[in-house]
Amino acid sequence: MTNSATRDDIVAGRTSLGIEFGSTRIKACLIGPDPTDVIATGSHAWENRFEDRRWTYSLDDVWSGLQAAYADLVAEVRARYDVTPETFGAIGVSAMMHGYLAFDEADDLLVPFRTWRNTSTGPAAAELSTLLGINIPLRWSIAHLHQAVLDAEPHVGDIRFVTTLAGYVHSRLTGEKVLGVGDASGMFPIDPATRDYDQRRVDLFDAHAAGRLPADLRSLLPAVRVAGEAAGTLTSAGAALLDPSGVLRPGVPFCPPEGDAGTGMVATAAVAPRTGNVSAGTSIFAMVVLERPLQSMHHEIDVVTTPAGDLVAMVHCNNGASELAAWAGMFERFSAAAGFPLEPDAVYEALFREALAAEADAGGLLAYNHLAGEPIAGTDEGRPLFVRTPDSRFTLGNAIRAQLYGVFGTLALGMRVLDAEGVALDRMFAHGGMFRTAGVAQRFLAAALGAPVAVGETASEGGAWGIAVLAAYLGHSAELDLDAYLQQRVFAAASVDVAEPDAADAAGFAAYLDRYDAGLAIERAAVAALS
């Protein structure tokens, strides 16, 4: 498309804006009438904080970061097209799922935001899993709420609304306390028949919590919306929050706010049964769309939904590529100290290529990427470890392959459970920054999962693009369901690279995973010994 035609689309508001709050970056993505046409992007770096033994982000950082990412996108639009956006066809907000944001009657935050990364909800999660007959992971919002009840926290009596980060930002921009069904499924179990909170389980919870909460559960949670449903419009106050310059006009329609799992499914066209995706960032998780409900409850698996409300088995690991990034950062610093500075992408390229030529089982080396607690591994806190025996082969390639395998280690343990359940998977799609180096992390993931892994052109675009696509879907939901829209309007001409499992890599990873599983005792001992 010519610059002139794109400029006309921007001026006329024939565009869709996606905003995603990731764990380390807030991203904005503007797309044209063709969802594959990325007009401009913007971003802002931010970091969680560990305060009073809880992982959190401040709400001031939410808004300053959002404004910075939006301003960065607007600056790119101006530089490319010599126009400043005044409106959009639709907007969508996405963010990290789960966690706990509790507000009082005046919509004031009662306690600092508790993110998905906190693992202090064990008693509540165990109690609710038994009560509801479904796995309630530590990070789910209902586990945080019930733990606050069990701990008799002073703020509980003042709670009038509980939501996720995406739901909070959406409510401030639109005035609507709603949530996309995918994000809502990480707050409380969803009934796939109604695509709403499971009423039988809501009743069980209300009876169990009677007298201990100031209201029934439904009145505390956001209303549920599915992909394609209207979810409010940008208010004047919301426009001023997003764009303090005053250029952006109110009235833009919003799609339902979604979690990063849902936008990852959209960004990889993995919303139909027998498809799945892996998202690798600060955390790593796999989503597999189910043909049927799971036969048993498993602590390694939580059942969530696609943005359209179909059941998904989720293997969520609190720790993803952060430890790998720390190693890459060390080598980046070494290159600079040696007088040959390399850009981060060049460092990753060199290290990944070295890993590709290493031994299939990483030479007997072992790496744990646990910066935070890892429920699947049975740890409440994290202690990153690198372990080797005297007879292991300590080479650069083996060390980096061990780190790459370590990113997928806990995930693979959870996927073993799905395999035992007989869950069928035709292809897994992968996205996230670590897949930018073509053919390396993708190949090792295929070996770890024993299934083909596809990486598309949008692999590093991630959730900001995914939620922009969901915003664009608002105008097409009356004619196409979500899967059909993705297949026909978004991915019909997409270029996809598929890596089949390599037999040697698969055998090497299996040996590594057996070692990894046995060595979890070392990780637990480190948590106990090193405070």
UniProtKB/TrEMBL annotation:
Q: This protein's superkingdom?
A: Bacteria
Domain spans labelled Carbohydrate kinase FGGY N-terminal: 17-242
One GO biological process this protein is involved in is:
D-xylose metabolic process
**Short name of any one Pfam family annotated for the protein:** FGGY_C
Q: Which keywords fit this entry according to its UniProt record?
A: Carbohydrate metabolism, Kinase, Transferase, Xylose metabolism
* Protein name (record): ATPase
State the organism named in the record. Answer: Microbacterium imperiale
- Name the SUPFAM superfamilies for this protein: Actin-like ATPase domain
Molecular-function GO term, any one: kinase activity
Residues in the signal sequence: none
- The residue ranges of the Carbohydrate kinase FGGY C-terminal domain are 277-473
Give the similarity note: Belongs to the FGGY kinase family.
